[in-house]
Amino acid sequence: MAKDKTNIYDVAKKAGVGIATVSRVINNSENVKEETREKIIKVMNEMDYRPSKVAQNLAKQQSNAIAVILPSFVDHFFVEVLKGIQDTLEKEEIDLILYKINVDENRISKIMDIVHSRKVDGIAAVTMNISNSNYRELLQSEMPVVLADEKSKNFNSIYFDNIKGAEMAVDYLVNSGHQKIAFINGNLEHYNAQERLKGVEKAIKKHQLIIEDKYIKASDFYTEDGYKSMQELLEMPQSEWPSAVSAASDNQAIGALQAIEERGLKAPDDIALIGYDNIELAKYLKITTIWQPMYKLGQLTIEVLLKEIKGELKERFEKELALSLIKRETA
Amino acid sequence: MAKDKTNIYDVAKKAGVGIATVSRVINNSENVKEETREKIIKVMNEMDYRPSKVAQNLAKQQSNAIAVILPSFVDHFFVEVLKGIQDTLEKEEIDLILYKINVDENRISKIMDIVHSRKVDGIAAVTMNISNSNYRELLQSEMPVVLADEKSKNFNSIYFDNIKGAEMAVDYLVNSGHQKIAFINGNLEHYNAQERLKGVEKAIKKHQLIIEDKYIKASDFYTEDGYKSMQELLEMPQSEWPSAVSAASDNQAIGALQAIEERGLKAPDDIALIGYDNIELAKYLKITTIWQPMYKLGQLTIEVLLKEIKGELKERFEKELALSLIKRETA
DNA sequence: CTGTTAGCGCGTTCAA
DNA sequence: TTGAACGCGCTAACAG
């Protein structure tokens, strides 16, 4: 195979200098005579030469790229986080390699694959629940890591208080006069779902109410899950219907809303409904919800990761992002 | 800096073989005695060795990664395309590097940066309007490229018929009895917007109607643009209001819907509204729209790109994906 | 200021 | 079946 890409030797030869000097101008080193620099730049342009990132990576032992690991591309929550990530990354000259790891896969193992590939300088893992697994290997690898949407004592982490969020939702419903409240939760394998259940129970207890098991649903965080759960609720005799429903995600709330409207009912008149996340859809569907600042989560995650990569982070970073209730029309 | 990563030499030494043999088992070469292979695998596991992708890339002159270039992370259109891309890529062991190129940037130049970086084996460029620019350099680079949402005679391309789509929308409105139709277009710098305008004009002419300039708006494809355009329309005397509006994107349609409802009006009773794209939001907001199969676009794009990379594509690939009208409640 | 040389970690002939 | 040696393209001492 004839070599077709011009390399640093070609440039050096044509410019009549050594490759080190060419390398110096590539890397904007100070110690190059202005005259020489200009000449080399001229030659590089003539030959349309650009250094091979791959070779640079190998030599420098760094890649100018980070990995972003997501559990899903479907969920608007993650899309919003991704926006924050991308916008922040755009300012730097750093590539974004996107990985999706499904819930049923061995997360740590997959992440270690990424670590060992040397393709990235750091990893942002979103909602990966690493902390409960055998993360030692990852820790020891000394790869810069930031966990987003997950609290951790061992890694940098930026997270929300799920207990508080769920509690806020129920508080709001109770303060609006509701007593019979149902909770449509996500999959309890998710730590976030467990926490939110705790928050609901805490609030219920605080208000000296009780919540029967039949009012607690748990499937997954998606729209269809919310739809089904709401249907089940509405299949009960009307006298047993909850007067308000709290969903663990806006996606579920949207599904629930569908189920409500299909019955000819309305939120909040017949059944009040509150979501969780504040995805864009919630705004247009006017769903009252708990706002998790996802964009900011992505933004901050990258800022911290970049600092860690540059060695500017002196100690483990840990931060809780504040939640807030967005009052709209469904509750 | 002490070397901390175990490399192929470490493995070879510990296993008492040459690095070539280790390399052979890494790459599943046939010509290795079973006994030797097992021993090497054992050692690799013990040392938790994994080959450096970067070094492999440099040696093999390929990267097992592709670039996906998008104009935006915000737009649901692109998110949907991205889903199709990711799902298709997931089956292969190929990394996805995401690039965003803004409209005001020199696209070809940016793309050539990616080409020369050697970080990817192929490029999927979505809605990049490469064909009108000076693409020769890209063509000559022989980098596998697929253009998505853009028709091209020089690159593999998968696209929609924008003229037909806009025409379908207007046809539908006219057939529903509307005569005074407004068109909220995207930025005319986009080829797609130009085409859609043509489609509208074609349909109007076909039905022997006329469309006054004041009924043709052009800003950008986003929600706020649709909102503003609709506001302008509604600022005219009520007698001059269009009875139906066709928007060039669902985002615009959503904004337009907002403007309509804020005035206490309803679609379709007061003003009929049809969108374009069929993003998820449109479904929940019950917006009648023209469906561009975005997911399929992403899927097919990657399939073609992978074939091209593998050298299985004998000739330039070109395909138009069919549009369809999704009737819902706003028109 | 500049050139030589030795890596970076792996793939791949070419002999053996 | 195997191993030695060279090449991939570039960076980083080191010497000059």
From TrEMBL, chains A, B:
In terms of superkingdom, the source organism counts as: Bacteria
In Gene Ontology terms, what is one molecular function of this protein?
A: DNA-binding transcription factor activity
InterPro entries in the record: HTH_LacI, LacI/GalR-like_sensor, Lambda_DNA-bd_dom_sf, Peripla_BP_I
Q: Which PROSITE patterns match?
A: HTH_LACI_1, HTH_LACI_2
Any Pfam family hit: Peripla_BP_3
Write down the SUPFAM superfamilies for this protein, in alphabetical order: lambda repressor-like DNA-binding domains, Periplasmic binding protein-like I
First and last residue of the signal peptide: none
Q: Does the keyword Transferase apply?
A: no
Q: Where is the HTH lacI-type domain?
A: 6-60
Extract the SMART domains matched here: HTH_LACI
The name of this protein is Transcriptional regulator, LacI family
**Species annotation:** Halanaerobium hydrogeniformans (Halanaerobium sp. (strain sapolanicus))
Lineage, opening ranks: Bacteria, Bacillati, Bacillota, Clostridia, Halanaerobiales
